[in-house]
UniProtKB/TrEMBL annotation:
GO biological-process terms attached to the record: chemotaxis; signal transduction
PROSITE patterns with a match to the protein in the record: CHEMOTAXIS_TRANSDUC_2, HAMP
Pfam family membership, one: HAMP
Transmembrane segments: 12-31
Record's protein name: Methyl-accepting chemotaxis protein
InterPro entries according to UniProt: Chemotax_Me-accpt_rcpt, HAMP_dom, MCP_chemotaxis, MCPsignal_dom
Length: 661
């Protein structure tokens, strides 16, 4: 089928053919102009190079005259060295010109190259004669008709070569101007004609084949956009892109018609969903109340709803069943724990539960069983402990009485012994006290000496730290000086900047003020540190003097301590005999007093233990374990270990009394 794309491509191909013709002509013109321009530029370069060679030849001739007209060898060198440089430059110029010469100009260039080589050789020989032979020989060789003839021939060849290059360059330039003028007059007219024909042809075809059908389709789309799905879509039978678009629009119209039917169906479904959501909200509200009651500990609430939804009825039934199970379990568990709180350990939970409730039931039953066994054990043990405590109390009372009698006798003996040793001990004590006082004085003096040494070291460190702080303040002073200089420079630059630098000038002024304050503060600190250093040095001298005095005090204290030590030793030897006897009696009295105290404590502890055992029996009696009869019907316990100890103690005291009698 013929599509719009194929028609547009055909039109573009026709227009492109004309454009290709015009473009080809333009490219040929540009190529021709570029070729002519390149030749013209090459000829201009050749002319310029020829003129440079001619100028170099003239300069060589002038320097050669200076060589053979010189008066001395120094003057010869003055012109010879530059002339040699120019001759070498002349050779390079000719070689460079050879790279620019075209194939059709090689013969003329060869003649020019030979003439220049002959000229260079002639002038080089002139310089050699002036250096190695004489200036007169150089003058004879360089200032003659042959030289002038060689120079004239080279000049004529250069002029001819330059003139030919200029003529060819002018011809090439004229040809380029002619071609450009032709292109400027013919190419725009041809291009304009092709563009106009293409434009008007495309405009007419577009209006007939594209614009009008698109307007019809647009009108149909506007009607369809307003909701009228009964509109007829035009140009459906066309076989190009317009037809494809019309058929697509027809499909869209059919879909729109279906969408209207679906919208009506969706509105009905939405009404049903709204009714169901309202019912669901009521159920959710009831469920929320039941859950809130369960969270508050009330599991007796139940859900009662009327709904045709099977899933909703199952949900409500499940919630009610959960509440019933939890309510039944918590009630039974609370009753069991209440019985335990009242002391009844004979009943357990017998109802079968599952899951976590089964674990909780097992834990409660195990707790009741363990507590029952524990209480039964306590009741049995309490009877035994009560019997033993009564025996301990009886033995402790007997031991306490006998110990008190023994303590009274020993107390009288100890008093007599202490009075005898008092006078001797007083003397020894005074001696020891004097010795301790002397030793304390010596230690204090030695400690003072160490403190003085430490003070001297500390002052030395303070002096060093003051010196370091002084160095730091010097650095701060230098930084403040440099900052002041920078602030001055910044103020100068701000003044140069005029209005734009006023803000910077204010900042520079503030920085300068801060720098001056820093410098003044550093000077004040330096003065204070200098004063502190002087005071520290004076303190060091005073502390050293105090240290020397303390050394003398320590020496005297040592002598006093030695004397007092001798006195104390003599008094101690006198008191040793009496002290040993006094210590023996005192030790015996102390042991007796401790035994009496222990006996009293044992009696008090036994009495307290008896009371606590009775209270424990009262508490254990409040529990019912099913084992009370067996505990109460047990026979009396055998004599306990405390009773046997009491019998041994009584026999021991009886034996000691018989020995004394």
């Amino acid at each position: 089928m013929k599509t719009i794309k194929s028609k547009i491509i055909a039109m573009l191909m026709v227009a492109s053919g004309g454009a290709v013709i015009v473009g080809g002509s333009s490219l040929w013109t540009l190529w021709h102009v570029a070729t002519v321009q390149e030749r013209s530029e090459r000829q201009a370069d050749l002319s310029l190079a020829t003129e440079r060679i001619n100028s170099a030849v003239t300069a060589v001739v002038m320097d050669s005259r200076g060589v053979y007209l010189a008066k001395t060898r120094d003057e010869v060198e003055k012109f010879a060295r530059p002339n040699e440089e120019r001759l070498r430059a002349l050779g390079r110029m000719v070689a460079e010109l050879g790279t620019k010469v075209g194939p059709d100009d090689r013969e003329r260039f060869a003649r020019l190259q030979a003439a220049v080589a002959e000229f260079i050789g002639f002038r080089t020989e002139t310089i050699r004669l002036a250096r190695e032979v004489s200036i007169a020989a150089a003058d004879a060789q360089g200032n003659n008709d042959l030289n002038r003839k060689n120079r004239q021939a080279l000049n004529d060849l250069l002029v001819s070569y330059s003139a030919d290059n200029e003529r060819l360059g002018d011809a090439f330039s004229a040809e380029a101007r002619r071609v450009v003028s032709l292109a400027e007059t013919t190419l725009p007219a041809a291009l304009l004609a092709i563009l106009c024909a293409s434009f008007f042809g495309a405009l007419r075809w577009t209006s007939r084949s594209v614009t009008r059908p698109l307007q019809d389709a647009t009108a149909a789309m506007e009607v369809l956009a307003h909701g009228d799905v009964s509109v007829a879509i035009p140009h459906v039978d066309r076989e190009d892109e317009i037809g494809t678009m019309a058929r697509t629009l027809e499909v869209f119209r059919a879909h729109a018609e279906q969408m209207k039917a679906l919208e009506a169906q969706e509105r009905r479904a939405e009404a049903e969903r709204a009714a169901r959501a309202e019912s669901m909200m009521a159920v959710v509200h009831d469920v929320g109340e039941v859950v809130a009651a369960a969270a508050a500990g009330d599991f007796s609430a139940r859900l009662e709803i009327e709904s045709t939804d099977d899933q909703m009825r199952k949900l409500v039934g499940g919630i009610n069943e959960i509440n019933a199970v939890v309510d039944r379990a918590t009630t039974e568990f609370a009753e069991a724990l209440g019985r335990v709180a009242k002391g009844d350990l004979t009943q357990t939970i017998a109802t079968a539960y599952r899951g976590r409730f089964a674990d909780l039931k097992m834990a409660i039953n195990e707790t009741i069983a363990t507590l029952s066994e524990t209480v039964a054990t306590i009741q049995t043990t309490a009877v035994d402990v009560a019997s033993a405590s009564r025996e301990i109390q009886s033995g402790a009372d007997d031991l306490s009485r006998r110990t008190e009698e023994q303590a009274s006798s020993l107390e009288q003996t100890a008093a007599t012994t202490e009075e005898l040793a008092a006078s001797v001990k007083a003397s020894a004590q005074a001696s020891r006290h004097a010795l301790e006082t002397a030793e304390d004085a010596m230690r204090v003096a030695e400690g003072g000496g160490q403190i003085v040494s430490q003070a001297i070291d500390a002052m030395a460190r303070i002096e060093q730290a003051s010196q370091k702080i002084s160095d730091i303040t010097s650095v701060i002073d230098e930084i403040a000086f440099q900052t002041n200089l920078l602030a001055l420079n910044a103020a100068v630059e701000a003044a140069r900047a005029g209005e734009a630098g006023k803000g910077f000038a204010v900042v520079a002024s503030e920085v300068r003020t801060l720098a001056q304050r820093s410098s003044e503060a550093a000077k004040d600190i330096t003065g204070l540190i200098t004063s502190s250093t002087t005071e520290v040095a004076q303190g060091v001298r005073l502390v050293r003097s105090a240290g020397e005095s303390l050394d003398r005090i320590v020496s005297a204290s040592r002598k006093v301590a030695s004397t007092v030590d001798e006195i104390s030793s003599a008094a101690a030897e006198q008191a040793n005999g009496i002290d040993e006897m006094s210590q023996a009696v005192a030790h015996l009295d102390e042991m007796t007093q401790q035994n009496a105290a222990l006996a009293e404590q044992s009696a008090a502890s036994a009495a307290s233990l008896t009371g606590q055992i009775e209270r424990l029996n009262d508490v254990a009696a409040t529990f019912r374990t099913g084992q009370g009869a067996s505990a109460q019907g047990r026979p009396p316990a055998a004599p306990s270990e405390p009773a046997r100890l009491r019998e041994r103690a009584a026999s021991a005291f009886a034996g000691r009394r018989a020995a004394r009698g």
